[in-house]
Every structure is written in structure tokens, then in C-alpha cells.
Amino acid sequence: MELRTIEILLDKYFNAETTIAEEQDLKLYFSSHNVAPHLEQYKPLFGYFSNEGKQQFDKPLPLKAKKRYGAWISVAASVVLLGGMLTLYNSEQASQDELGTFQDPEVAFKETQKALNMLSKNVNVGMSSVHYVTGEYEKSKETIFKEVKEKK
What we know:
Elements: H1 3-14, H2 20-31, H3 43-53, H4 70-98, H5 105-151
Helix pairs in contact: 1-2, 2-3
């Protein structure tokens, strides 16, 4: 090929404007032995694909059979499911035994008062925490706004 044509194709190649046929012409030119001295630097670029295409992978690949865990997973899932069902059944039995009805209205009233008293204590503990957090928030807010006012 003419040297000027190769240079034009190289410019097009580096601008990503070449066709496949033009790239084949470049590969053919650079694989020959009569490459112009100032274009020798591009020879490895176009020779790379032809050299790499000839390589063969010759190392042995160890083939291991895949272990099948499907059977064990299904057994384990069955055991977990059965255990969960037994736990649920036992907890329902226990809750039915503990939360029976009272025959005596006075005993029922006292048990209800105990339950409401316990609920009230727990709510009061929670409210004291809320009051503490609210107080800390107000202190922090005042400190921040004092600093902002002082900077102005």
C-alpha cells in the first residue's frame, strides 16, 4: 500500500472513523516486513491481535462436581418449621392457661387493678425520660441560639 494512504488510515483509526475493512488493511500492512521506519511504533499495536489469536490455553482445568445441598437444606427447613410450630402451640397453650376467666368479680377487679397499676408505673417511667430529654433539648437550644446571637 501507499505510505500516504496508511498515514491517512492511521489518522482515521485514532479518530475512530475507520471501517472494518480499513482496519484489516492496517493490520495487513503492519504485519508485513516492509513497514516505514517512522511507523514502526504502531507495529505492536496492530500485531497484538494476530499474536494473541494464536495463543492456546493448555493448562488442565480441575473439574469438581458440585455438591448438592438441596436435600440437607430441605431437611433443615423442615426441622425449623416443625420446631416453630411446636413453640407456637406451646405458647398458645400456656397463654390460655394463664389468662383464664375469673369466677369471682372481686378477684377479677383486684387483678385488673394490679395490671393497670403496673401499666401506670411503666408509663410514668417513660414520661420521666421524655421530660429529661425535653429539658436537655431546651438547654442545648438556648446555648446554640446564644452563640448565634453573640456572633451577630
